[in-house]
Specification:
426 residues, alpha/beta, Helicase, Ruva Protein, domain 3, Rossmann fold, 5-stranded parallel β-sheet, two-stranded antiparallel sheet, 16 helices, globular, disordered N terminus, disordered C terminus, nucleotide-binding, ATP binding, MoxR family ATPase, P-loop_NTPase, ATP-binding
């Protein structure tokens, strides 16, 4: 059967998934717009493989050893045997990319105990060329997780300890006047923001003016000092940590600035076995260490491969309706913007790649809806007073969208959340 409107789905991917927040340098391998192709089919439980377009047949044929057409083979080379998991050429295939991630997670696991979802979501942000905000109470390993990932991915790393007296120049850099033989000259001294990974530790303890300076660099990926513009390193990621805003001495980030983070990741407490392992490791004679897993070039190749992961048109449309449903009122006072639709779809592609699949499944959209939406929706006063959390509201959106089944207790008329409307449009 003929592919379903591949030209339309490609135009959506190219125009909407190339947001400035993400990878601006990526261009598809095809140069002729009339022949451009972004796979739009991904089998899930509701799809029939009989209706798969030609691209899915080519994936299956190639896996069986049958030749694919030259154009597709140029972008996805499946016959090259792996030499080393760190070889950038190996990310031409989804299978070998999965091996790279297994190696990365094993290396990170040498230092970080548990926190598998947290590590995975940080890696998803890197694959999407986006920024991540990690929130938890103090002492749960946010800083250690980010610094360990920077070592494994072999990226330059700087840490900014945010305090109320931190100034914007302390982050971006400053111009210094130098004098040589009676002649004065100006030299720009780079700030800590000039690195591949910048850890903004306790970002909500910095003043709003300093937060704005950092978040401007996140958006523009450049800084302007004394009228001169300086581009930041590529790739560039800000991984910020914050303590809950209920604690004293914090400045909550405005919603418009929060929207610049691709994901908001909640770091949970470890369970008993994990905490026991943490104690054993860090009370021994030697502290755990890790080594480099991949190079910068390999990461950038993986970023491009992420955008090639196909998603079915049906699942894409359901995801967009999910985000639009957040604007229907009820428990959510202000819903998510179209940037959330872009983020969910792109993050779902990255998750599928990490899990070794060459298509986006419904479980990817479900998993990515929480970290993408939880900082992009604002609950109504009634919902907050009733104890509803952003994750509760997201779960209701997923239930309304047919992604999740309602729990029995949520159908009871006496239930707390049953009394709160979560948008009525379908």
């Amino acid at each position: 059967m003929e592919p379903e409107n591949t030209e339309t789905s490609y135009r959506y991917s190219k125009e909407n998934l190339n947001d400035e927040e993400f990878d601006q340098d990526y261009t598809p391998g095809f140069t002729d717009e009339s022949e451009s192709y972004a796979p739009s089919y991904a089998p899930d439980d509701s799809d029939s493989f009989d209706e798969a377009p030609a691209a899915a047949d080519k994936f299956a044929a190639e896996s069986a050893g049958e030749p694919a057409d030259a154009a597709l083979a140029q972008e996805h080379v499946y016959s090259v045997p792996p030499k080393s998991v760190a070889d950038p050429a190996l990310v031409k295939t989804y299978e070998n990319a999965h091996k790279i991630f297994e190696t990365l997670f094993n290396e990170i696991g040498q230092v970080i105990v548990g926190q598998k979802e947290v590590v995975e979501e940080v890696m998803i942000a890197l694959l999407c060329n986006g920024h991540a905000l990690l929130e938890s109470n103090p002492g749960l390993g946010k800083t250690l997780t980010i610094s360990t990932i920077s070592k494994v991915v072999d990226l330059s790393f700087n840490r900014i300890q945010c305090t109320p007296d931190l100034m914007p120049a302390d982050i971006t850099g400053t111009t210094i006047v130098e004098e040589h033989g009676g002649n004065k000259s100006f030299r720009f001294e780079q700030g800590p923001v000039f690195a591949n990974i910048v850890l903004a530790d306790e970002i909500n303890r910095a003043s709003p003016k300093t937060q704005s300076a950092l978040l401007e660099a996140m958006q523009e990926k450049q800084v302007t000092v004394a009228g001169h513009t300086y581009p930041l390193d590529k790739p560039f990621f800000v991984l910020a940590t914050q303590n809950p805003i209920e604690q004293e001495g914090t400045y909550p980030l405005p919603e418009a600035q929060l929207d610049r983070f691709l994901l908001k990741i909640l770091v949970p407490y470890p369970d008993f076995d994990e905490e026991l392992e943490i104690v054993n490791r860090y009370t021994a004679q030697t502290s755990p260490t890790t080594s480099r897993g991949i190079s910068k070039d390999t990461l950038m190749s993986l970023q491009k491969l992420t955008r090639d992961v196909p998603i079915s048109e049906e699942l894409k449309q359901r995801t967009i309706r999910l985000v639009m449903r957040s604007r229907d009122g009820g428990a959510i006072e202000y819903g998510a913007s179209p940037r959330a639709s872009i983020a969910i779809i792109l993050a779902s592609k990255a998750r599928a790649l990490i899990h070794g699949r060459n298509y986006v499944a419904e479980e990817d959209v479900i998993a990515m809806s929480y970290p993408v939406l939880r900082h992009r929706i604002i609950l109504s006063f009634e919902a907050e007073r009733s104890g509803v959390t952003p994750d509760d509201a997201i779960e209701d959106l997923l239930i309304e969208g047919g992604f999740l089944k309602a729990k029995p207790q949520e159908n009871e008329s006496s239930g707390l959340r049953a009394k709160l409307p979560f948008g009525s449009k379908k």
